[in-house]
Amino acid sequence: MFGEKPLVFNPQVASKKPTNKQSCPFCEREGLENIIATKEDCIWLTNKYATLQKTEQTLIIESKKHLGDISNYSVLENRKIFSFAVSKWFEMIALKKYKNVLMYKNHGPLSGGSLRHPHMQIVGLEDNEPYKQIQWENFKGIQVAQTKQFEINISQNPLVGFCEFNVIVDTTDVNSLADGVKSVVEYVLQDYFHGKCDSYNLFFYLLDGKIICKIIPRFVVSPYYLGYGLAQVNDDVRLREISTELLTKMNGKSSIAI
């Protein structure tokens, strides 16, 4: 992941961003500006604090619930949020103004996010093409579950490591995407690493007629990755243990038939 030129960050803008120690701007909805679209509790708006040059930064406010998250939304609520977010991601892609349009989500203190209130980000890149550095091999691995609707696996060739979950669906089946991601996120926050993981990222990709969501539990980043771009991955024995743990949880709790 070292081949693409860096995004240029504006610290002057970043210094003005609100923090979790202040009142939450996403809870004070009457004060929101530059709203692009709304549907029920979801709001799509331009990011007031656009910190990256040569980008178009937008936000999806998922819910009125300040402590809401994929892990505690109902199945129906989560599906509505995913439907709204994916549709707006596709809208920005359809504009054909950007070399790439990224959608991602931060959750937790180690995820890189600044505000707790649940939101996703959709960012149009004017110059950068990160897909050039991503291969299908990054989304293949030990299979957890496969149905007619989706595939869930654990990367054996991760982008960062150690444990990266991939949910893969057809572009028309956003409900299955939402359900699969919800199952993985619940496992990550409640069971993975003995329940000590409190942060994760979601990264969304559009490849060969498929939507892929990569779920990465977040801890301190490995020095091998920071210094040399070398990802680390658990051995196959541990990956298969994690696969079994996740599948058992899905069979016991999820509304999805596996």
TrEMBL record:
It holds the Pfam family DUF4931_N. Residues 9-127, 133-236 form the DUF4931 domain. It comes from the Bacteria. This is DUF4931 domain-containing protein. It comes from Ligilactobacillus ubinensis. The lineage of its organism: Bacteria, Bacillati, Bacillota, Bacilli, Lactobacillales.
